[in-house]
Amino acid sequence: MDGHGADGVLLTGVYGSGKSSVAAEIAYLLEQRGEPYALLDLDYLSWAGTGSEDRTEEFGLMLANLTAVAGNYRGAGIRRFVLAYFVRDLAEVRGVRDALAVPLRVVRLAVPLAGIERRLAGDVTSGRRDDLREAAASLAAGEGAGVEDVLIGNDRPVGVVAREVLDFLGWDSDP
Q: What is the DSSP pairing of strand 7-12 with strand 80-84?
């Protein structure tokens, strides 16, 4: 890896676990300190209508895009990378780590299914209903469990959870 002092965190968990919200709060806190960072919600790097519903192809597209985007950010002097994405196993973690090309720690956010259902109750789109079914199936199958360096419950205010992540990373007091 060629991160040259850069560091990254991957916030993972099933759909509705709050990855994007916690990532946005971490980015806000880093920005308030004037610290260079990049926030990447990796779902957007593979959101395309390719005609295939193959997770492997979608994941490969995301990794190719992440490699390019992360290289651009590193070239611009970014030191902190905040990523949000549901990784299902350690092979996917390795893929993300290799594409990012900086040291990466994984924080899995946990929320009970009932909490996810409450969060999604106000979003009535068809896609969100599908996401809820997928989250329930992933939780039942134990997908994503064991990929983390630390497990953090995300059933508290987003600012509290974001600061807990920053503390775990040791980013809470870095210049």
A: parallel
* Per-residue pLDDT reduced to its tens digit, 118-160: 777 666 566 667 777 777 777 777 888 899 999 999 999 999 9
Residues 6+ apart with CB under 8 A from 7: 79, 80, 81, 102, 103, 104, 105, 169, 171
CA 26, 30, 35: angle at the middle one, nearest 5? 150
- Three-class secondary structure of residue 105 per DSSP: strand
Q: What is the pTM of this model?
A: 0.86
Query: How long a stretch of residues is the chain?
Result: 175
Break the chain down into helix, strand, coil percent, rounded to 5.
50, 15, 35
